[in-house]
Amino acid sequence: MSIEIKLTKKEKKLVKSYARLHAVTVEQAFKRALFELIEDEYDAAVADLAHDEFVASGEEAIPIDEVWKELDA
Prior knowledge:
The protein is mainly α. It has one domain (9-72). 74% of the residues lie in helices and 0% in strands. The chain is built from three helices and no strands. The chain has helices at residues 9-21, 26-57, 64-72.
């Protein structure tokens, strides 16, 4: 699959600089950024869903200090 992205000269310079800094191609830099964004948004959506399910369950949260005590025991 091929995608064309139009950039200003300033944007192109920034992207090339970023790619050079990280020793990757411009294509790799864009792919990395895109997939990190997708992964972050997916993780946030899953976390929101899990939180909503927890709230709907009516369970009570355990204070973090109690969790740490149990883990140290």
